[in-house]
Each structure stands twice: as structure tokens, then as C-alpha cells.
Amino acid sequence: MTYVRKDAGTLTAAERRRFVKALLEVKRRGEYDEFVRMHLAYYSSDGERGLRTAHMAPSFLPWHRRFLLDLEDALRRVDPAVTLPYWDWTRDRTTTSAPWTEDLLGGDGRRSDQQVMTGPFAYGQGNWTIEVGVTEGAFLTRNLGRRSDPIALPTASDLEQALTDPVYDVRPWDSTATRGFRNRLEGWSTGRGSGSWRNHNRVHRWVGGAMLGSASVNDPAFWLHHAFVDLQWYRWQRRHGGARYLPATPPGQGDEQQGRVVARHEKLPPWDVTPDELEDVGRIYRYA
């Protein structure tokens, strides 16, 4: 039966409690850290050799769609009533609005070391120790809005610039593509400084702390952010009826991207699934 993903700002107190409880249980079981390890393993950039799947590539959206489904499956094994909420960062734009409440994700990090001190994922609560990361830090960190050098969240207008692009992706199928919905939504852009970070990327920068690097999964905000990103693909598909994932076929001989990107009907590592099979999730979930 199809289930519903809801806006975090509309969750009831009971729904927030059940989501947090299920997430903490997935962490307690040791399953959560495997998600962190997977994201670390598949975080590769344009400059690295070999296949790129999770970032700076057409498969950014289907890869994370399947990643979210795996986490959601883990949550629903704990509590079948739980689904992933999404954070609408075009509307909930302050450091105290959803999802940064005491009973959901907790708030900002403290000034001295960015350690999150409030909410269920604060280190002091004893339920959320960072076991897998790129640093030795054991506690969750955030720097909402980047206090020392303020940055704003993307606006609805910024998001619209991605949604209006009728083509899913274009050559060279990486972070330098100047057109295409995928790269506009992922948020790579020309230029320097904070202005070069758009949409998805800019949100990671705004949250800061653990969300800045390849171990960003350590912050539960990762899932709510990416659920909203997934919703944009869902909306884009409906706006541009018939528009499909690209490339449809693998880059050919002599193409610098040969063997480096996943085509529509190729398997998407580490799963036995193709982007084609992930384009329609209407029989699994829908968004409220």
C-alpha cells in the first residue's frame, strides 16, 4: 500500500516522537552507521577516476532516492507507521522553525565548538555518538546559517530555476553542466564563494557542521533535506510529462565520461536496480 511522506512542519507531536524513536533505534542497532559508510564510499567527484554515482553525475537523484528508501525501510521495520518527513527549506527558513525544534532534530551548535546541545541527537543525551566520520569528533555539529559568514537558504525562486529546465541532464554529465534539471538542483555553478552554491549544495552549507562533508549522513537533517530534494524530482517529472532520465544510453567510445556515469538502463551500484526502475515511485509513496 502506498504511504505518505509529510512536511516536517505539519507533523503532529506523536508523529515527531515516533520518527525520532525509530531513528534512534536504527542507530542503536548499528544499522545507521552503515548508511554513513555507504555515503562515504560512493561520494566521488568529477576529478576522481572511475564510476560516479552519488554526486556530480546524472544518477545523483535516483541514487539518493534508493538511499532514502533503504533508510525508510529500516525505520518501518521498527515502526510501520513511520515515514520520512521532508524539510521545505523554501518556507521554514529560520534556525528555530521546523525541523530545528527540541522534539525533532534539535537546534544549532554552540559557538565554541558547534556541538549540538539540544534535542534527541545531542551528544549529552547519550543516544547519538558519531562512530563513522572524516574527523575524530564524537558529537553532532551544526552551524546554522554560518554565523561568522552568513549564508541564506535557497528561495522558491532559486528552486524554480531548476524546475523550469525541461531536460533532465546534459553533457558532460558532471558538475560543469550549464543546463539540465539535475545539475541545477544539485547546485553546482560557476563562480566563486557562496554564490556558487545553489539549491541542494547551498542547504548543506547553511546547516554546516557535519553536513558539510561526505559524512553528512551523521546529521539526521540529511534525510529531511534529501526527501525535499526527491520531492523536487517528483514535481519536475509531473511538470514535464514524458521527460526521462538522461543519458538514455552509455557514453560511447572516446567520450571522457565513458564508464563514469550510469545510463538509464544500467545497474546503479551498490544496488541491483536501474535509474529507469526508480523513475516511478507512485506505487511506493507519495508526498503530502
Structural class: mainly alpha
Order of helices and strands: EHHHHHHHHE
What is the percentage of strand-forming residues?
Answer: under 5%
- The total count of strands amounts to 2
* Poorly predicted runs: none
CATH architecture: Orthogonal Bundle
Largest sheet: 2 strands, parallel
**Total individual domains:** 1
**What is the CATH topology descriptor?**
di-copper center containing domain from catechol oxidase
What is the CATH first-level class name? Mainly Alpha
Q: Helical amount among residues, as a percent range?
A: 25-40%
Distance between the termini: 15 Å
CATH superfamily: Di-copper center containing domain from catechol oxidase
The whole-number mean of residue pLDDT values reads 96
The side-by-side strand order for the widest beta sheet comes to: 1-2
Radius of gyration: 18 Å
Describe this structure in words.
Strands 1-2 form a two-stranded parallel ribbon. The mean pLDDT is 96. It has helices at 13-28, 31-41, 60-78, 156-163, 181-186, 199-207, 221-239, 275-278, and strands at 3-5, 285-287. The protein contains eight helices and two strands; from the N terminus they run E-H-H-H-H-H-H-H-H-E. It is mostly helical and 288 residues long.
Can you summarize this structure?
This protein is mainly alpha-helical and 288 residues long. 32% of the residues lie in helices and 2% in strands.
